[in-house]
């Protein structure tokens, strides 16, 4: 039995090295400056020309959402397994993804309503509808080869009612490369923004 142990150990090390080398072509833990910068572009937007006006007390106010620790930096996270996070090489966000999603949601809402939409930081106000929450995922899931955007939000009306809901969009079959991941992130983020906007306005 003992004669086989060195062989088994060597085979296990070889397998681990092979997996590591396979991932190393796509993933990184930091280092070089990215070749591309990623921003979220809305698929719908408010019309050019018409002016939206109204009382801030009647506005929809979007607070800056909190975010998971892996989303507090500008790198695009890659979930390797349940306990390991790496970052996609050659690409980074131009701004924190939580703030970018807030801007995307604001533009999506402006395209769907005539109500005033205010992003937290524009004014120190309490609107008729306050939206806050936490960005849970906006990156690549290696085991399923998919891009995932997930956010949990709370909506509070001036009357006092508070509702909470989790939103998610998944784009499957994506290679762990900068360009396809960037395109899928834009698609998933716009899908979630549309879902959230419909919920806020319902």
UniProtKB/TrEMBL annotation:
<dbReference type="Pfam" id="PF03886">
    <property type="entry name" value="ABC_trans_aux"/>
</dbReference>
<protein>
    <submittedName>
        <fullName>Cholesterol transport system auxiliary component</fullName>
    </submittedName>
</protein>
<feature type="domain" description="ABC-type transport auxiliary lipoprotein component">
    <location>
        <begin position="51"/>
        <end position="197"/>
    </location>
</feature>
<dbReference type="InterPro" id="IPR005586">
    <property type="entry name" value="ABC_trans_aux"/>
</dbReference>
